[in-house]
Amino acid sequence: MKCPVIDISNKKVGDIDLDEAIFGAPARPDILSRAVNWQLAKRQAGTHKTKQRAEVTGSTAKPFNQKGTGRARQGDKKAPHHRSGGVAFGPLPRSHAHGLTKKVRRLALKTALSAKQADGKLIVLDEAKSKTSKTTDLAKQVKKLGWESVLVIDGAEVDANFGLAARNIKGIDVLPSQGANVYDILRRDTLVLTKDAVEKLVERLK
User: Fold this and answer.
1) Average pLDDT of 32-45?
2) What DSSP designation does 177 have?
């Protein structure tokens, strides 16, 4: 499929053929959901923790005699049913990550790219480079382009000046092609790929 290529000044500089298998995949919301859940589960810290009975500070002495008081027998004051006692079956530090096969991950990335293309929210940029690292210079160009919520994916490496200039602009994320992922593509309204990024993504997903 044909797609126009623009430069940073929003002028058309040519066309590019997008691979139908990668940028024309059918919609699969279920696959996208699985990929996003997998990514967010890996990010989750899992550091929640409560003190169990053995970890609570306090005496281990028996609070009163086993028999003769008319009260229920007690071993110590650190039992979960006592005030200031340990927590029964509380959370422990753990990893929330779960597996997702490479085949599904690859399909999810293809689906995310295709969804942006189908919605008309995929832009191919000649190159993402900036002469200076000043945020103000790039911000003016971004305003002319009408980019408010955008993910820019470059080739193997992001241009140093462009990366520095873009990092202080609200609503713009910049990633190298190797860092392209489903969550970041979906969380931004517009997806901008450089010609190098298109080439690298096709190599990666073929």
Assistant:
1) 97
2) G
